[in-house]
User: What shape does this take?
Amino acid sequence: MRDIPIHYQIACVILTALFIWSFSIAREPRGWRRLFQSMFSKSEHFSVNKNKVIDEALKRYGIVVAMAILVVDVSCFVLGVTDRYRDKMRDLTPAQRERMQEINKYQNSGKPGGLVQ
Assistant: This one.
């Protein structure tokens, strides 16, 4: 983890926590709905049918939100892992990039499935 910059590490930790939280809400929406209702709603406004609809919506949309957070989390991790390589490539001059492309072309041409001219 020393190679990954700190801002990517912090983002990954926060996104992973958000993923776990949203996935747990999607898996068991009834407990979370009851907690929310006990904190913010009055007891005389409870309806069994309305609660069932809320639970189903939480389950349906909660999974979608959790998967979206997971995709962003994995993307952030990949960006963190490749940060050093991207910085090195950004600092290359055009001549160095051209030389690197030539080396890669010759290395790939000798391998099976590589470029053959």
Observations:
- Helices lie at 6-27, 29-40, 48-81, 83-90, 94-109.
